[in-house]
Specification:
globular, six-stranded antiparallel beta barrel, 150 residues, 29% strand, single chain, alpha+beta
């Protein structure tokens, strides 16, 4: 392996450690985190591995859309969708944590004009998402809406 190529298993382990630290900080801070996400609206999304059956929690930036939560499967601009996206599509009934509150949601993938409107707003709010769009091309970054189950 060259010095610039990293083992995929090690990359996943690094991502898992980073996510675990963000989840811990989120919970300790009542839904707030620092670092590069300081001030950004954060949500913890619970999901079950579609192949492993393992329970997972992923921290994500969200956009409030009329009381629902839009999340973006950007994977930092990678050419593939993140695992959590596939897990949520396979099992759209889940739970989220926002601030200090935990509640059930139903996941719906946005398409067409509805997706475009939310995605364009996200790029305006957080310009890094515009760069993710460029580096992910030709992959279109999915936008999921998490709607509270009443």
């Amino acid at each position: 392996m060259s010095e610039t190529t990293q083992d995929p298993a090690e990359l996943k382990a690094q991502a898992d450690r980073w996510n675990a630290a963000v989840v811990e900080e989120f919970r300790a801070g009542g839904g707030r985190v620092g670092g590069r996400f300081e001030g950004a609206p954060m949500i913890l999304v619970h999901h079950v591995g579609r192949r492993s059956g393992a329970e997972r929690v992923s921290p994500m930036v969200y956009q409030d859309v009329d009381g629902a939560y839009a999340v973006f499967a950007s994977k930092g601009g990678a050419p593939t969708h993140p695992d959590w996206y596939h897990n949520l599509v396979a099992r759209p009934e889940t739970t989220v944590e926002v601030g200090t509150e935990t509640f059930p949601v139903r996941v719906r993938e946005l398409t067409g004009e509805e997706r475009s409107r939310v995605w364009e707003e996200q790029k305006t709010r957080m310009p890094g998402f515009a760069q993710y769009e460029v580096t992910a091309a030709p992959r279109q970054i999915p936008v999921l809406l998490l709607e509270r189950v009443r």
